[in-house]
Amino acid sequence: MNSQLINALKLKMQPVAVILTNDKPADGLHFKEGVRGCVAAMLVAASKKGQVAFFDRNSFGCPGGGTGLGFGDKYGRFPIHCLLSTGIKEMAAQTGSAGSARAEGERFYKNPEIAGKWVNSLPFTDVPTEYVVFKPWEHVTERDEPKLIVFFANADQLSALVVMADYSRGTNQSITAPFGAACQSILFGYAEAEKDNPRGVIGFFDISQRKAVDKETLTFTVPYKMFKEMEANVAGSFLDMHVWHKLQERQ
Predict the structure, then answer these.
(1) For residue 187, what pLDDT is reported?
(2) Under DSSP, is residue 113 helix (H, G, I), strand (E, B) or coil?
(3) For 109-130, what is each residue's pLDDT tens digit?
(4) How far apart are CA 36 and CA 187, in angstroms?
């Protein structure tokens, strides 16, 4: 499907559509039930390699991933507030890097109490479909009804997306940049999609998963209705102007 916005940005990684559906894809990347894996890595693979990926309530990789995909609060009794802060001492006896990381904690928050406040702030949701699908933009058709579009962008491209987000609004309130697991911008995007004037979500701030993308790359996630709003505003915007074309020479 053609997009003036995507064409104008000259992205190195293609955007990914997040699609909610009850129809199981005929083929695609998919975690086996009970097997751990990283949803963010699947998102990157969809963008870089053009591969469809899909998930259901029995195969979402990890608790943070299941939560980020919108399968409800999948942390359950797992002490995520300890992992994000000062650690889970009971894991100290485990060997390997995973056990060590859990024992020491990721130190993204000062203590478990503050990390708990972050957990309580999450916009948990339970999507109404059986599957969540990541479809690379090159495979998106007019028949698809994406919930979200996820861009992978460098600083210049992200700047353009931020400007376009507010281009026809003038509110200076058209973006948000919450912390979460690398895949959880999807969760925040779902919450924005329910608003009359949704915001774009800047993400991939998760230090533990930054290695999955180039150091210049962040994500920008928008509800599909916001994507269409931005798409409609490309003609006549700065994306048509010399200053943007000149800036692209260094990409």
Answers:
(1) 98
(2) helix
(3) 999 999 999 999 999 999 999 9
(4) 20
User: What is the reported pLDDT for 66?
Assistant: 97
Per-residue exposure over 160-195, b if at least 16 CB sit within 10 Å of its own CB, e if not? bbbbbbbbeeeeeebbbebebbbbbbbbbbbbbbee
Tell me the three state secondary structure of residue 202.
Answer: strand
What DSSP element (H or E) covers 155?
Answer: helix 155-165
Distances (CA, A) of 114 to 37, 63, 111: 27, 20, 6
Residues 6+ apart with CB under 8 A from 124: 67, 72, 73, 187
Beta-bridged to residue 247, according to DSSP, are none
Q: What contacts 24+ positions apart, CB below 8 Å, involve 92-99?
A: none
Residue 80 corresponds to which amino acid? I
**CA–CA gap between residue 3 and residue 65 (Å, rounded):** 29
Closest CA to 66 of 36, 88, 91, 95: 36
Q: How far apart are alpha carbons 139 and 148 in whole angstroms?
A: 15
Q: Which two tokens stand for residue 59?
A: 């195969």
Q: For residue 241, which of 2, 43, 8, 15 has the smallest C-alpha distance?
A: 8
Which regions in the chain score pLDDT beneath 50?
95
- The pLDDT value given to residue 101: 67
